[in-house]
């Protein structure tokens, strides 16, 4: 087991997920239903499933496309999504 990679992955995903829509959805569901365990288990299974899909997809794609290309495309997608969010936010402010 590569413990350094495990810790890096945990830290990266943990920080990325803080305050995101998933966490807010879990917060809302628990507040609404007052049942922590089923919401926690459901959210954990969902996040685990999505992470598994990402890991498998990354493994398959990584065999056919060089890592540098994947990083560039991922970076462009993040920047593009950020720009879209900014444009929408500004258009809501101006409306």
Topology (elements, then pairings):
Elements: H1 3-17, H2 21-33, H3 36-64, H4 67-94
Helix pairs in contact: 2-3
How would you characterize the overall build of this protein?
By secondary structure, the chain is mostly helical. The protein folds into 2 domains: 1-64, no CATH class; 66-95. 89% of the residues lie in helices and 0% in strands. The chain contains 4 helices and no strands. α2 (21-33) packs antiparallel against α3 (36-64). The radius of gyration is 17 Å and the shape is flat.
Gyration radius, in Å: 17 Å
Shape: flat
Order of helices and strands: HHHH
Strand content: under 5%
Q: Count helical runs.
A: 4
State the main characteristics.
mainly alpha, 4 helices
Summarize the structure.
This protein is mostly helical and 95 residues long. The chain is 89% helix and 0% strand.
């Amino acid at each position: 087991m590569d413990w350094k990679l495990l810790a890096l992955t945990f830290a990266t995903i943990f920080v990325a997920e803080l305050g995101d829509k998933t966490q807010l959805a879990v917060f809302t569901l628990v507040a609404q239903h007052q049942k922590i365990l089923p919401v926690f288990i459901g959210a954990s299974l969902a996040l685990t499933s999505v992470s598994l899909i990402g890991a498998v997809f990354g493994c398959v794609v990584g065999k056919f496309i060089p890592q540098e290309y994947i990083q560039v495309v991922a970076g462009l997608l993040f920047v593009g999504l950020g720009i879209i969010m900014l444009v929408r936010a500004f258009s809501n402010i101006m409306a």
